[in-house]
Design goal:
Layout: E1 2-6, H1 14-29, E2 33-36, H2 42-53, E3 57-63, E4 76-80, H3 83-92, E5 96-99, H4 104-118, E6 126-129, H5 136-147, H6 155-158, E7 160-162, H7 165-176
Parallel strand pairs: 1-2, 1-5, 2-3, 3-4, 5-6, 6-7
Helix pairs in contact: 1-2, 1-7
């Protein structure tokens, strides 16, 4: 399975880096491929390191204005012209999506895949890895959207919230029948 992760490139503390590395090692040991933003800094580096330590395959999609931060030694690295092309390529290369902790860029990427899914333009499973309760507020907002009629599909059809890396991977493997 090719798993796209949307996540921060910021340097973060252990409560965020430990689960990210754990998830990367789980998917690497499971024989899956990591499709990610291609950066060799911050949390993106942590995930790439974990994948390579576990023998996993790395497919990066960076963007021209961040190309100097792209990870050397990735199995594949594509440099997109802009952020829109980067998102399109990340999603094209993936069978599933996991949203990890991040800022506005991560939120933009997450809402794009959910919007595509809401309108039936993709059926890829999407997991929000809710590390340390980071996305509790987003989860509540999504529930409100559902309760008040803003979502034409059930929230559970759009996204799965996992509290731990092992739950995220189990959901993806079950969704795609790779168990």
């Amino acid at each position: 399975m090719d798993i796209c992760v949307f996540l921060s490139a910021a340097d973060l503390d252990d409560r965020y880096t430990r689960p990210a590395r754990e998830f990367a090692k789980l998917i690497g040991k499971g024989g899956h491929t990591l499709v990610w933003g291609g950066s060799d800094v911050g949390l993106m580096k942590v995930v790439a390191d974990g994948m390579q330590e576990a023998g996993g395959r790395l497919v990066g999609v960076s963007v021209s204005f961040l190309a100097e931060k792209s990870r050397p030694g990735a199995d594949e690295m594509v440099i997109a012209a802009d952020l829109a092309e980067r998102k399109r390529l990340l999603l094209e290369k993936a069978d599933a999506v996991v949203v990890m902790v991040g800022g506005t860029g991560t939120l933009d990427e997450a809402t794009e895949i959910l919007e595509l899914k809401k309108h039936g333009h993709t059926d890829k499973p999407v997991v929000v890895l809710n590390t340390a309760g980071f996305y509790d507020g987003l989860k509540e907002q999504f529930r409100r959207m559902e309760d008040e009629g803003f979502l034409p599909r059930a929230l559970t059809d759009l996204v799965f919230f996992a509290e731990e890396p092992v739950g995220a991977l189990a959901y993806l493997e079950e969704s795609l029948g790779t168990v």
